[in-house]
Amino acid sequence: MRYFYIILLSFFLLNNAFAEVFTFRADRMSGGRATGREVTILTGNAEVQSDNLLLRAERIEIHGTNNRFIDCFGNVSGYDEEKEIFFQTDRLRYDRTLKIARLEGNSTMEDRKNEIVARARFIEYDDQNEIAIMQISVRLFKDSLVCRAEHSVYDRADQTLALSGFPVVFKNEDEYRAERIRVDLDTDDVVMEGEVRGSLRN
Predict the structure, then answer these.
(1) From CA 124, how far away is CA 132, in angstroms rounded?
(2) Whose C-alpha in 49, 127, 162, 174 is 20 to 30 A from the C-alpha of 93?
């Protein structure tokens, strides 16, 4: 066989009053279950399924009490089937208790339901509150809208984007610059504050 997949028994984790099923597989597995140092290391075509989130990477480490943390390294990708969010990154840590994913390196997050693509060097996505914090070389694309900044907060529930750190927004052929910019992603309306400037083309 080209790939020998180790399919491990599902974890049946007691969470409040119900059991959560947690599965993973890979070419190779190592680790230990010593108290206080529990870790499972998956290498080669590693894959983890937790709740609605599917993670893939070259190497995945699962550790913490009740396997709380999932660390992914190398060609990391993930997909939340329920919310239609896809992402790619160099490194990722997922907190299964808080439902927070932290992406580091060349990172891309696609909100396919709302047709939004975001890129940055750091992205933290809070699944429970549906808020993404993006930092360093932030780029966000939606239809004819292109947003750039060093820091941004994307509120998925409200469909708003707050930009700071030399923000600039390109809307069709128009250009907007200010200290802070807020974009309504439903209407593409732009609100600017502090040293506002830009250019409009008829």
Answers:
(1) 6
(2) 162
